[in-house]
Amino acid sequence: MRSVRKFLNALKFTYFSLFMITLSAVILFTFMLDIVQKETYELKEFQIAHEAIRSLKTVEDTVKTEQERDRAANEVAPVYQFSEDIAKNRQAIATSIFDFLIDVKKEMVSDNAETEEEIKITEKSVEAMREKLSALEEEEPELQLSDEAIANLLSEDINILEGIKASVVKVLGEELSKPLRTTDLTFAKYEIERQLRLSNTIPTQIEQPVISIARSLLVETEIFNEALTASRVEEARATVEPIRILQGQVIVREGQVIDGEVYRQLELAGLLTNKTQVKPLAGIALFVSVMMSILFLHFQTWRESSDVKKKSLVIALVVFLLTVAIMKLVSIIEPEFDLLIAFLFPTALASMLIKLLVNDRLALTISIIIAATAGIMLQDGYAAIVQMEIALYILFGSITSLYLLGNMSRRSTILRASLGVSICNLGFIAFYLLMTQTTYELTELTFYAMAAFTSGVLSGALTIGLLPFFETTFGLLSDMKLIELSNPNHPLLKKILTEAPGTYHHSVMVANLADAACETIGANGLLARVGSYYHDVGKTVRPRFFIENQHAEQNPHDTLPPKKSKEIIIAHTEDGAQLLEKHKMPREIVAIARQHHGTSLLKFFVFKAKELGEDVIEEEFRYPGPKPQTKEIAVISIADSVEAAVRSMKEPTSEKINALVSSIVSDKLRDGQFDECDLSMKELKRVERAMCETLNGMFHNRIEYPE
């Protein structure tokens, strides 16, 4: 049943947190709207600009970028590669042609059994040569020899053909060893023809066919490398940086005609009324969603009661929206100044408030969210979309305050922490000014130094000023408030000290025991200590009826009936609660006064009534309660009983103290006094151990000094 109730509480908190965080997200988005809804202009092409217009953001001009890349690509020269293999291949073809001629010639000689001079060229021999050349002619379309040219070549002597072959191969080799492109071929062919005519090794009747063969075999030796050229073109395009319209850049000057190119740039920069700013709106919405999701996850993973988490969430959101409102105010007046007045923002306000009101973990989370939000909301002129110097400035100031506050919450500690934040701010601003590499005048440096100091001091001052408001509004009992209540000069504590000094001493002892025990189980030791100071304030109504305030005088209970004594003793819890309420003390302190006895039985007066023969109804001799509702009150109830019992022991030893504490805890446990608080058996054992250690330190054996 308890687990079901716990699940339902968690479910209720989930819906509550979703509603509150969504509402805050909408408010934050509204505050940020004007960041993306910048000033636009209703302009037309060829209109004269009435004022200078600057770009409000940095955007890439894709049209100009592409034009520049095309220009760079067109300037890349085609890549050609020289190949030595081409010369060898062409020489090999020339050699093959003349070898074919020589082979056919030899076959003709052997078939006719005649001398070379007597052989007549027949159709058969021409056909044989044509057949050998057919494959070459298919590969080399320019190599076309007529039947007459073949017959003339075959009519020459073998030795002459060998000499012609050598000449052609040599001339081809010389020309093809040079880098030749298509444009060079005409001159190269002319040069081959000239050299062959001057060689005097070619008979006149076959000079033309030989030159034709040589010219047809002349080709380019430098081949266009398409892949390498394409690669260099891409490299050239890649080296061109994107052309950007920079934030703050003047697009059109006053009095300038808005031509097509300028109009295109204005449209690209989103400065025309017909250009909808959808992307920035989506970006801001995404940013707000991420920030609020982080806050939601923080509370979902926080192991605490639903009521505490609800109150803490509301406090966190109120503090967050308060700081956002301050940012909004700063952003409104920022344009009126030439300096970056965002440095006046109280950097540590939110972190201090959340730490003092809730805890460190939530304070750190809120600090990060506020720093990121400030980076967007406190932009200066034409800065980037996130003003990093402001974001870091606030983040460093916030973290510094968390460390400097520590576990102390006095006002003096807050002021010291705020001075530490001022020093941190000064250091960061010095870094900022040095990194900008700009020469600043003395007035500017003075302003920034004062802004850093003011930011830190303002954080502390606003924290001290706002704390009472939050404590009153949310019914909070902060550590600082508890420390103030522990001041011995508090009217109620002075009342206890002067009117019931024994009770005051007893309360201080109980406070020491309760504080030590609470620390061992992770409860609020400071609350237990301060609550113990006031838990018996009701005894000041009738101080002499309580034994610790009786000094060698008759006990008034000796003459009173048990029932009357019971009423006086029991009344001190309600008297104390009413007295505390009258002084507007925190409800946690009032609860301690009312609940620290729970529904315990006044055994002494029960036994006394029985001894007197009275009819005893035990329920009438019990405190009205309620039973302790929190761990702190349960621990105080144990400490209250233990301190009184140990003080009444004549010779307290470690063994006696341990046995007595164990007995008191067991008795309260059997009586059901811890049924309504979340105190486990394991924690009870720790409480018992801690109290025994503290009591043994208080009542240790002392050295008996000689007279």
Automatic annotation (TrEMBL):
The chain crosses the membrane at residues 12-33, 281-301, 313-333, 339-357, 362-378, 384-405, 417-435, 447-470. Gene3D superfamilies: Hypothetical protein af1432 (1.10.3210.10). Residues 105-146 form a coiled coil. SMART domains: HDc. CDD domains: HDc. The keyword Transmembrane helix applies. Keywords: Coiled coil, Hydrolase, Membrane, Transmembrane, Transmembrane helix. Pfam families: 7TM-7TMR_HD, 7TMR-HDED, HD. One of its GO terms (molecular function) is hydrolase activity. Residues 499-654 form the HD/PDEase domain. InterPro entries: HD/PDEase_dom, HD_domain, HDIG_dom, Metal-dep_PHydrolase_7TM_extra, Metal-dep_PHydrolase_7TM_intra, PgpH_phosphodiesterase. SUPFAM superfamilies: HD-domain/PDEase-like. This is Phosphohydrolase. It comes from Sporosarcina ureilytica.
